[in-house]
Structure formats: structure tokens, C-alpha cells
Amino acid sequence: MLRHLLLLALVATTVSSHAACSFSHGPRLYVSGSKALDRGEIGRAIADLEEASRFMPESSEVQNHLGIAYEQAGRSEDAHRAWKRAVALDCSNQEAAKNLRDFERTAAVSGEARPEP
Predict the structure, then answer these.
(1) DSSP-assigned states of every residue in 50-105
(2) Closest CA relative to residue 102, chosen from 86, 81, 80, 82
């Protein structure tokens, strides 16, 4: 019984330490990716922001910056998907809403708009 309790304690400690790491790792990747985006290091920005989105899947801000990075890399469909997700996660994210509107307006004018799947 004691052995079983020690094993449970070890598992609980491991899980909580991983949770703590992911709690701080996601924001650090978001900051790193955002700074890379500001410096024009688009590949690095995408890598960091994609990883941040894995740690923080409910972050509208991460999705918005990921959309910006995708757009700058010429990945229009990915940008569109990221901005739609950002707005779906937080409809009050005005920057993401503006990016989505601008993208869809430009796509409609240029004939790039695609029907929803």
C-alpha cells in the first residue's frame, strides 16, 4: 500500500511540474514569437507561435499573431484560419477582428475568397 501511495505521489508531482512548465513555456514562446515577428524573422515567429498555440490553445492573442506571421509568409489560408480562430476564441479581440475583416475584404476583391468547407 505504501508503495502504491509513493507511486501516486510521484505521478502527481511529475504531472504538476509538467503543468507548471507548460504554464510558463507558452507565454515565453508567445513573447519570443512576437518579437521575432517584429524583427521580420518570420520563420522563427511561426515556429515559436505555433508551439505557443500548443501550450495555449485558447489564446486569441497567439492566434492573431500567428495569423500575421502566416500572412507575411504568404500562407493565406493558414492566416485566415488563425484569425477566424482568434475571433472565435475572443470576439472582443479588436485587432484580430480587424485583421480578419481586412483579409476577407482583400480576398473578396482579388477573387481569392473560397467557400467555407
Answers:
(1) HHHHHH-TT-HHHHHHHHHHHHHTT-HHHHHHHHHHHHHH-TT-HHHHHHHHHHHH
(2) 80
pLDDT digits (tens, 9 = 90+) for 95-109: 999 999 999 999 888
Is residue 43 helix, strand or coil? helix
Assigned domain for 105 exists: yes
Specify if 70 maps to a domain: yes
pTM: predicted TM-score of the whole model, two decimal places? 0.76
> Is the pLDDT confidence value at 66 over 80?
yes
Give the CATH number of the domain where residue 52 resides: 1.25.40.10
Cα separation of 61 and 68, whole Å? 11
Whether the Cβ atoms of residue 50 and residue 73 lie closer than 8 Å to each other: no
Cα 64 to Cα 1, 4, 38, 85, 110: the distances in Å are: 50, 46, 14, 8, 22
In a domain, 68, yes or no: yes
